[in-house]
Amino acid sequence: MSQCRKRCKRQLTKVARYFYHFLMGTLTQDSVEDDFELSTVCHRPESMDKLQEQTKFTKKELQVLYRGFKNECPSGVVNEENFKTIYSQFFPQGDSSMYAHFLFEAFDTNKNGSVSFEDFVFGLSIILRGTINDRLNWAFNLYDLNKDGCITKEEMMDIMRSIYDMMGKYTYPTMQDDAPREHVESFFQKMDRNKDGVVTIEEFIESCKKDENIMQSMQLFDNVI
């Protein structure tokens, strides 16, 4: 395996671990503090039984996830600025604000400017427990910034720049400034099958399924919880 591939795999593993820590939160609260926090929650989630039916998590897993979520978001919902603040803790060496914005948009399915626990676990259920098609559809929706059903080079460039900004330029000391553009060109060369300048959901899923590295990277989240 090349050094570049090893380095990328380490970064993906690191992201998965950070995501895990964000989900779990601080699980050392005592019962008195838990009772107090529950009393101050403004938004109460649907019953765990109902969420269990609607997601691929067990009731116990949902309880653990909720405990971590309310530890970070005592009001029961998180707005975009708070989401960015939380996410920035995991990438102190870079600027994660733009990537966090895109991620927040993907979780905010109701487009009301906030992410509830339900929003969070529905998205998480797809990412961690969904089928390959489910996960790829979610990823496509993340990259399709204006939600018009296709990914343009401009959208992919925005995504790639946000990722490089998040990881920090000093993480990759030999990286050239035009690296994001080269990555986008490679992405389109591989996925834009009919060469019309955009990538459709069908092209995206078909290309991803044929890419061994993409399939392996998706498996990193299989055992996060």
Explain what this protein looks like in three dimensions:
This protein has two domains: 103 residues, EF-hand (Recoverin, domain 1), CATH 1.10.238.10; 93 residues, EF-hand (Recoverin, domain 1). It is built from twelve helices and four strands; from the N terminus they run ααααβααβααβααβαα. Helix 5 crosses helix 6, helix 6 packs across helix 8 and helix 8 crosses helix 11. The chain has a two-stranded antiparallel ribbon with strand order 1-2. Strands 3-4 form a two-stranded antiparallel sheet. The protein is globular. Helix content is 63%, strand content 5%. About 10% of the residues have low confidence. The chain is mainly alpha-helical.
Short synopsis of the structure:
With 225 residues, the chain is mainly alpha-helical. Helices cover 63% and strands 5% of the residues.
CATH topology name of the largest domain: Recoverin, domain 1
Helix fraction bin: 55-70%
So, the CATH homologous superfamily of the largest domain? EF-hand
Unreliable spans: 20-41
How far apart lie the N and C ends?
28 Å
Which structural class fits the helix and strand makeup?
A: mainly alpha
- Tell me the count of domains: 2
Q: What is the radius of gyration?
A: 18 Å
Q: How would a crystallographer describe the biggest sheet? A: 2 strands, antiparallel
The helix/strand order is: HHHHEHHEHHEHHEHH
Strand order of the largest sheet: 1-2
> Which CATH-level-2 architecture of the largest domain?
Orthogonal Bundle
Number of strands: 4
Report the oligomer.
Answer: single chain
Keywords: Calcium, Cell membrane, Ion channel, Ion transport, Membrane, Metal-binding, Potassium, Potassium channel, Potassium transport, Repeat, Transport, Voltage-gated channel
Main location: membrane
Family: Belongs to the recoverin family.
GO molecular function: calcium ion binding; potassium channel activity; potassium channel regulator activity
